[in-house]
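seq as requested:
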Amino acid sequence: MRSRSRPSRPEVARAAALVVAALVLLATAALGGPGPRSASAATGPAAAVAAAPVTATPRAAPAAVRQDDLTRRGLPSRTAWRAATQRARRWAAAQPERIRFALRVEDRSWAFRGAERTNSNSVLKATVLVAYLRRGSVRDRPLTRRERALLEPMIRRSANGPVPPLIDAIGGLEPLRAVARRGGMRRFAPVRTPWGTSQITAADEVAFFAALPSLLPPRHRAYALELLRTIVPSQRWGLARAAPAGWLARFKGGWDDHGDVKQVMRLECADRVVVASVLVDGTDHERSIAAIERVGRRLLMPLRARGAEACSSVLAPAP
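C-alpha coordinates:
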Protein backbone atom coordinates (compact mmCIF):
# COMPACT_ATOMS: atom_id res chain seq x y z
CA MET A 1 0.00 0.00 0.00
CA ARG A 2 1.49 3.31 -1.07
CA SER A 3 1.84 5.98 1.56
CA ARG A 4 0.42 9.46 0.92
CA SER A 5 3.01 12.17 0.39
CA ARG A 6 2.85 15.24 2.60
CA PRO A 7 2.13 18.59 0.93
CA SER A 8 5.17 20.70 0.34
CA ARG A 9 5.77 23.92 2.20
CA PRO A 10 5.03 26.14 -0.86
CA GLU A 11 1.64 24.42 -1.25
CA VAL A 12 0.82 25.04 2.40
CA ALA A 13 1.77 28.70 2.01
CA ARG A 14 -0.46 29.12 -1.03
CA ALA A 15 -3.41 27.55 0.76
CA ALA A 16 -2.89 29.82 3.73
CA ALA A 17 -2.77 32.85 1.46
CA LEU A 18 -6.09 31.88 -0.11
CA VAL A 19 -7.65 31.51 3.33
CA VAL A 20 -6.36 34.94 4.37
CA ALA A 21 -7.70 36.50 1.15
CA ALA A 22 -11.13 34.98 1.74
CA LEU A 23 -11.19 36.29 5.30
CA VAL A 24 -10.24 39.78 4.08
CA LEU A 25 -13.08 39.67 1.54
CA LEU A 26 -15.60 38.65 4.19
CA ALA A 27 -14.45 41.37 6.56
CA THR A 28 -14.61 43.97 3.80
CA ALA A 29 -18.18 43.04 2.89
CA ALA A 30 -19.25 43.13 6.54
CA LEU A 31 -17.74 46.59 7.12
CA GLY A 32 -19.02 48.08 3.83
CA GLY A 33 -15.64 49.28 2.56
CA PRO A 34 -12.36 48.05 1.08
CA GLY A 35 -9.96 46.33 3.48
CA PRO A 36 -6.15 46.22 3.48
CA ARG A 37 -4.55 44.30 0.67
CA SER A 38 -2.29 41.39 1.68
CA ALA A 39 1.08 41.16 0.02
CA SER A 40 0.71 37.39 -0.21
CA ALA A 41 -2.62 37.79 -2.04
CA ALA A 42 -1.33 40.15 -4.72
CA THR A 43 -1.87 37.65 -7.50
CA GLY A 44 -4.42 34.97 -8.43
CA PRO A 45 -8.21 34.92 -8.72
CA ALA A 46 -8.89 35.16 -5.00
CA ALA A 47 -6.58 38.16 -4.73
CA ALA A 48 -8.41 39.93 -7.57
CA VAL A 49 -11.77 39.43 -5.86
CA ALA A 50 -10.41 40.56 -2.50
CA ALA A 51 -8.90 43.68 -4.03
CA ALA A 52 -12.14 44.82 -5.71
CA PRO A 53 -13.59 47.80 -3.82
CA VAL A 54 -17.08 47.56 -2.37
CA THR A 55 -19.12 50.70 -3.21
CA ALA A 56 -22.49 51.73 -1.79
CA THR A 57 -25.34 52.46 -4.21
CA PRO A 58 -26.30 56.15 -3.87
CA ARG A 59 -29.82 56.72 -2.59
CA ALA A 60 -32.15 59.44 -3.87
CA ALA A 61 -32.81 62.27 -1.46
CA PRO A 62 -36.09 61.94 0.42
CA ALA A 63 -38.98 63.74 -1.26
CA ALA A 64 -39.32 66.05 1.75
CA VAL A 65 -35.85 67.53 1.24
CA ARG A 66 -35.67 67.51 -2.54
CA GLN A 67 -36.14 70.93 -4.11
CA ASP A 68 -39.26 71.34 -6.20
CA ASP A 69 -40.00 73.97 -8.82
CA LEU A 70 -41.25 76.40 -6.14
CA THR A 71 -38.37 76.09 -3.69
CA ARG A 72 -35.92 76.63 -6.54
CA ARG A 73 -37.62 80.01 -6.97
CA GLY A 74 -37.16 80.83 -3.29
CA LEU A 75 -40.81 80.12 -2.45
CA PRO A 76 -42.18 77.69 0.14
CA SER A 77 -42.52 74.13 -1.11
CA ARG A 78 -45.59 72.56 -2.65
CA THR A 79 -45.88 70.47 0.52
CA ALA A 80 -46.10 73.65 2.64
CA TRP A 81 -48.77 75.19 0.39
CA ARG A 82 -50.76 71.96 0.31
CA ALA A 83 -50.76 71.81 4.11
CA ALA A 84 -51.85 75.47 4.29
CA THR A 85 -54.81 74.89 1.97
CA GLN A 86 -55.83 71.82 3.97
CA ARG A 87 -55.89 73.89 7.16
CA ALA A 88 -57.94 76.57 5.41
CA ARG A 89 -60.30 73.94 4.03
CA ARG A 90 -60.93 72.38 7.45
CA TRP A 91 -61.66 75.78 8.97
CA ALA A 92 -63.90 76.95 6.10
CA ALA A 93 -65.92 73.73 6.05
CA ALA A 94 -66.77 74.17 9.73
CA GLN A 95 -68.21 77.70 9.36
CA PRO A 96 -71.91 78.55 8.94
CA GLU A 97 -71.09 80.78 5.95
CA ARG A 98 -70.69 79.24 2.50
CA ILE A 99 -66.97 79.78 1.84
CA ARG A 100 -65.14 79.09 -1.40
CA PHE A 101 -61.48 79.78 -2.05
CA ALA A 102 -58.68 79.22 -4.53
CA LEU A 103 -54.92 79.71 -4.34
CA ARG A 104 -52.37 79.88 -7.14
CA VAL A 105 -48.61 79.92 -6.54
CA GLU A 106 -46.77 80.43 -9.82
CA ASP A 107 -48.41 77.71 -11.94
CA ARG A 108 -49.61 75.50 -9.06
CA SER A 109 -53.22 75.74 -7.88
CA TRP A 110 -55.35 74.52 -4.99
CA ALA A 111 -59.02 75.18 -4.29
CA PHE A 112 -61.99 74.44 -2.05
CA ARG A 113 -65.35 74.61 -3.85
CA GLY A 114 -63.31 76.39 -6.49
CA ALA A 115 -65.71 75.71 -9.38
CA GLU A 116 -68.83 76.69 -7.44
CA ARG A 117 -70.58 79.77 -8.84
CA THR A 118 -71.73 82.73 -6.79
CA ASN A 119 -72.60 86.41 -7.35
CA SER A 120 -69.64 88.56 -8.32
CA ASN A 121 -70.77 91.74 -6.53
CA SER A 122 -68.13 94.43 -7.23
CA VAL A 123 -65.37 91.95 -8.05
CA LEU A 124 -66.81 92.21 -11.57
CA LYS A 125 -65.39 95.74 -11.83
CA ALA A 126 -61.86 94.40 -12.41
CA THR A 127 -63.15 92.58 -15.51
CA VAL A 128 -64.97 95.70 -16.69
CA LEU A 129 -61.74 97.71 -16.27
CA VAL A 130 -59.71 95.29 -18.41
CA ALA A 131 -62.41 94.98 -21.07
CA TYR A 132 -62.68 98.76 -21.42
CA LEU A 133 -58.93 99.36 -21.69
CA ARG A 134 -58.66 96.64 -24.36
CA ARG A 135 -61.14 98.41 -26.68
CA GLY A 136 -59.65 99.08 -30.09
CA SER A 137 -60.47 102.79 -29.81
CA VAL A 138 -58.89 103.05 -26.33
CA ARG A 139 -55.92 100.72 -26.08
CA ASP A 140 -53.36 102.86 -27.94
CA ARG A 141 -54.30 106.41 -26.93
CA PRO A 142 -54.25 108.46 -23.72
CA LEU A 143 -57.35 108.22 -21.55
CA THR A 144 -59.60 111.27 -21.41
CA ARG A 145 -60.48 113.07 -18.21
CA ARG A 146 -64.00 111.66 -18.40
CA GLU A 147 -62.71 108.09 -18.76
CA ARG A 148 -60.48 108.49 -15.73
CA ALA A 149 -63.40 109.95 -13.80
CA LEU A 150 -65.27 106.70 -14.43
CA LEU A 151 -62.50 104.12 -14.03
CA GLU A 152 -60.70 105.45 -10.96
CA PRO A 153 -63.62 105.65 -8.52
CA MET A 154 -65.02 102.36 -9.85
CA ILE A 155 -61.84 100.54 -8.79
CA ARG A 156 -60.38 102.55 -5.91
CA ARG A 157 -63.65 103.37 -4.09
CA SER A 158 -65.81 100.64 -5.67
CA ALA A 159 -68.29 103.22 -6.98
CA ASN A 160 -71.28 101.58 -8.67
CA GLY A 161 -72.36 104.45 -10.91
CA PRO A 162 -69.63 104.01 -13.57
CA VAL A 163 -70.39 100.34 -14.25
CA PRO A 164 -73.47 100.65 -16.55
CA PRO A 165 -71.99 103.36 -18.83
CA LEU A 166 -68.72 101.45 -19.12
CA ILE A 167 -70.54 98.23 -20.04
CA ASP A 168 -72.52 100.22 -22.60
CA ALA A 169 -69.30 101.72 -23.98
CA ILE A 170 -67.65 98.35 -24.57
CA GLY A 171 -70.72 97.06 -26.39
CA GLY A 172 -72.50 94.99 -23.77
CA LEU A 173 -71.71 91.60 -22.26
CA GLU A 174 -69.90 89.85 -25.11
CA PRO A 175 -66.62 91.81 -24.64
CA LEU A 176 -66.76 90.84 -20.95
CA ARG A 177 -67.13 87.19 -21.89
CA ALA A 178 -64.27 87.47 -24.38
CA VAL A 179 -61.80 89.00 -21.94
CA ALA A 180 -62.86 86.53 -19.26
CA ARG A 181 -62.17 83.59 -21.60
CA ARG A 182 -58.79 85.07 -22.49
CA GLY A 183 -58.05 85.34 -18.77
CA GLY A 184 -58.77 81.68 -18.12
CA MET A 185 -62.29 82.07 -16.69
CA ARG A 186 -64.32 79.00 -17.64
CA ARG A 187 -67.56 79.44 -15.69
CA PHE A 188 -68.01 83.21 -15.87
CA ALA A 189 -71.58 84.28 -16.66
CA PRO A 190 -72.09 88.07 -16.89
CA VAL A 191 -75.44 89.70 -16.21
CA ARG A 192 -76.30 93.19 -17.40
CA THR A 193 -78.93 94.10 -14.80
CA PRO A 194 -78.29 93.78 -11.96
CA TRP A 195 -74.64 93.41 -12.93
CA GLY A 196 -73.64 92.37 -9.38
CA THR A 197 -75.38 89.04 -9.93
CA SER A 198 -72.90 88.08 -12.64
CA GLN A 199 -71.61 84.61 -11.80
CA ILE A 200 -67.98 83.93 -10.88
CA THR A 201 -65.96 81.16 -9.24
CA ALA A 202 -62.96 81.31 -6.93
CA ALA A 203 -60.82 79.36 -9.40
CA ASP A 204 -61.77 81.64 -12.28
CA GLU A 205 -60.92 84.80 -10.34
CA VAL A 206 -57.50 83.42 -9.43
CA ALA A 207 -56.82 82.57 -13.08
CA PHE A 208 -57.90 86.06 -14.22
CA PHE A 209 -55.77 87.96 -11.69
CA ALA A 210 -52.79 85.69 -12.43
CA ALA A 211 -53.06 86.68 -16.11
CA LEU A 212 -53.83 90.34 -15.41
CA PRO A 213 -50.64 92.03 -16.73
CA SER A 214 -50.76 90.09 -19.98
CA LEU A 215 -54.42 90.98 -20.50
CA LEU A 216 -53.84 94.73 -20.21
CA PRO A 217 -52.63 96.70 -23.25
CA PRO A 218 -49.07 97.99 -22.70
CA ARG A 219 -50.08 101.67 -22.79
CA HIS A 220 -52.53 101.27 -19.89
CA ARG A 221 -50.96 98.37 -17.96
CA ALA A 222 -49.22 100.42 -15.28
CA TYR A 223 -52.26 102.64 -14.84
CA ALA A 224 -54.68 99.76 -14.28
CA LEU A 225 -52.35 97.85 -11.95
CA GLU A 226 -51.81 101.01 -9.92
CA LEU A 227 -55.56 101.45 -9.46
CA LEU A 228 -55.77 97.94 -8.02
CA ARG A 229 -52.83 98.70 -5.72
CA THR A 230 -54.29 101.93 -4.33
CA ILE A 231 -57.66 100.82 -3.02
CA VAL A 232 -58.94 103.32 -0.42
CA PRO A 233 -57.97 102.47 3.20
CA SER A 234 -61.54 101.79 4.30
CA GLN A 235 -61.69 98.84 1.86
CA ARG A 236 -58.30 97.32 2.67
CA TRP A 237 -59.78 94.47 4.67
CA GLY A 238 -59.87 90.69 4.34
CA LEU A 239 -57.07 89.37 2.15
CA ALA A 240 -55.33 92.75 2.21
CA ARG A 241 -54.87 92.39 5.97
CA ALA A 242 -53.52 88.85 5.50
CA ALA A 243 -50.88 89.84 2.93
CA PRO A 244 -47.30 88.85 3.87
CA ALA A 245 -44.73 91.54 4.61
CA GLY A 246 -42.99 93.15 1.64
CA TRP A 247 -45.26 91.71 -1.05
CA LEU A 248 -47.09 94.17 -3.29
CA ALA A 249 -50.86 93.57 -3.14
CA ARG A 250 -53.33 94.36 -5.94
CA PHE A 251 -56.89 93.41 -5.11
CA LYS A 252 -60.59 94.01 -5.58
CA GLY A 253 -63.46 93.28 -3.25
CA GLY A 254 -67.22 93.34 -3.46
CA TRP A 255 -70.23 92.92 -1.16
CA ASP A 256 -73.98 93.28 -0.92
CA ASP A 257 -76.43 94.22 1.83
CA HIS A 258 -77.05 90.64 2.94
CA GLY A 259 -73.64 89.47 4.15
CA ASP A 260 -72.14 88.21 0.89
CA VAL A 261 -68.52 89.40 0.57
CA LYS A 262 -66.05 88.51 -2.20
CA GLN A 263 -62.37 89.36 -2.69
CA VAL A 264 -59.46 88.46 -4.94
CA MET A 265 -55.82 89.52 -4.47
CA ARG A 266 -52.67 89.28 -6.55
CA LEU A 267 -49.37 89.33 -4.61
CA GLU A 268 -46.09 90.20 -6.31
CA CYS A 269 -42.47 89.95 -5.17
CA ALA A 270 -40.24 90.80 -8.15
CA ASP A 271 -41.44 88.26 -10.76
CA ARG A 272 -42.93 85.81 -8.25
CA VAL A 273 -46.73 85.79 -8.14
CA VAL A 274 -49.23 84.39 -5.64
CA VAL A 275 -52.97 84.86 -6.15
CA ALA A 276 -55.80 84.09 -3.73
CA SER A 277 -59.55 84.53 -3.89
CA VAL A 278 -62.14 84.00 -1.15
CA LEU A 279 -65.85 84.19 -1.90
CA VAL A 280 -68.23 84.16 1.08
CA ASP A 281 -72.02 83.93 1.12
CA GLY A 282 -73.08 84.85 4.62
CA THR A 283 -75.70 86.69 6.62
CA ASP A 284 -73.54 89.25 8.41
CA HIS A 285 -71.18 91.68 6.64
CA GLU A 286 -68.56 91.87 9.38
CA ARG A 287 -68.51 88.11 9.94
CA SER A 288 -68.00 87.53 6.22
CA ILE A 289 -65.11 90.03 6.09
CA ALA A 290 -63.54 88.32 9.10
CA ALA A 291 -63.95 84.93 7.42
CA ILE A 292 -62.07 86.15 4.33
CA GLU A 293 -59.20 87.37 6.47
CA ARG A 294 -59.02 84.14 8.48
CA VAL A 295 -59.00 82.00 5.36
CA GLY A 296 -56.38 84.31 3.84
CA ARG A 297 -54.11 84.04 6.86
CA ARG A 298 -54.23 80.26 6.67
CA LEU A 299 -53.66 80.15 2.92
CA LEU A 300 -50.71 82.54 3.06
CA MET A 301 -49.12 81.15 6.22
CA PRO A 302 -46.12 79.66 4.31
CA LEU A 303 -45.12 83.25 3.44
CA ARG A 304 -46.42 84.94 6.59
CA ALA A 305 -44.29 82.61 8.71
CA ARG A 306 -41.21 84.34 7.30
CA GLY A 307 -42.24 87.54 9.07
CA ALA A 308 -40.76 90.88 8.01
CA GLU A 309 -38.53 89.17 5.43
CA ALA A 310 -41.36 87.43 3.56
CA CYS A 311 -40.38 89.01 0.23
CA SER A 312 -36.64 89.53 0.75
CA SER A 313 -36.27 85.85 1.73
CA VAL A 314 -37.70 84.88 -1.65
CA LEU A 315 -35.20 87.08 -3.48
CA ALA A 316 -32.19 85.92 -1.46
CA PRO A 317 -29.77 83.82 -3.55
CA ALA A 318 -29.87 80.10 -2.91
CA PRO A 319 -27.03 78.89 -0.61
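The radius of gyration is 33 Å.
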